[in-house]
Amino acid sequence: MVLALTALVAAGCSAGSPQAVRPTSPPSSTQSRVPLDNLLDSSGFWKGGVTRNAWTTGVEIDDGGLVVAPAPANDTPKLPYAAALARFRSSTTLIGAGQRVNYSAAFGYGLVTIGSGVSGAVGAPSYQSRLAWIGFVGGAICPGGGAPGPTGVSGATGAQGSDGGRTPGWQALVMDAATGNDVVSYNPDSYEEPSCRGGAATVTSNPLQEVSIPWTPADAVELLVRYDIACGSTFDEVVWSAPSNGSSAPLQVLVTEPFTLGVQCQVIRPGSQPLLLPDGLRATHGLIGPFAVYTGAINAVSVSQVPAQPFTIASAFGVSNDRWVVPVELDGGELAVTPAPPGRSPTISYAVAMAKVKAKVASGEQLAGFAYGLVSIAASLTGNGLPSYQRRLAWTGFIQGPVYHCPAETPSNMHPPPIARPGSTPGWVAVVIDGTTGGDTVIYASRGSPCNSQPTGPTVTAG
User: What angle do CA 399, 405, 409 make, to 5 degrees?
Assistant: First the structure.
């Protein structure tokens, strides 16, 4: 995902405004509605809009290209909230989302209308005041639309960047509230367009989702798992979760496939994967079904409701006035940064701490986020005389390492690939500096396995 996010900010963008699109059969004009942005406060959290899983405020995006109206009291979904939310989170169109000032998705059910003038809407499942589950996530930012600065987020109020770049749009995922089918994604103008020229918003029918499929062990010691790939599916990876008890690690085989598979979709090939789990862990079967791509908060109205996010390029937009305002983490929480309480700030200045961090950035690396917060590092990583960090006020800078260009591997010299753990953040280094003394500097290197070598990390060293 980190690579996908990085790619979104790699191309140029010209100024311009998106072409307005309007539904051909909008809800009654007596139903008031507001632009979705109006439901965000100045900190990027929701002021309302969804109550008890239902849209209670009428909203629109793209000047009416997509409209949501509150449903009548007796009009409720048959598809349960949990099932709908799992499908929403699994949408691969949400990869790369979140580079917007809002820190959570808005999700609920309501009457959805998508205008026939939106590109791709003709021929897609019709949504004209149709009861549906719908979720919104802030879309990708065109280069030139503002970037994180040393004192906060450029363009945080939704205005155009100073160089004329456009502000981000909204991504939406819509599904029928009774069945969960007829899934469509609504992508903002210029989303995923390499040139970022600013075409109209688009509707995509039956988009892709991430799914966990069944697997079986190939031998008694479970060093190999076997699975079947059906038509329409593409193998992605094998992941494991942290053991909930004992030494059992739930294992999942992930594929990308359309929300609605073909009626005659059959197995097209078998697959297998060697395992390399940490010592002492035994693989057990994980959950089958939608696998969360989007892991952010839903309808959060304060930072206390936002779960810590694996650090990405987008996480740098979680800084305001040199302070982390959303929690971020590396390697599933081995290193975690949470917002400092209001009124608590470091005595070491931004300039002094930044100079220390910049001295650690090597050629080919990128400083992608820098601010102060409460830092915690797993005690198991800070032994041997290293300073302890447990909710300690500190400056933290995140550095993205260079891309590896690996030679061709052969079975004779390749280690079994490690199993990715949800929350792992390979390729990132964090430089942590005590906020009171400017000392006790440590460098945290994430878990990784470059070029299929033996897995390494995470490690903490004195800085």
Answer: 130
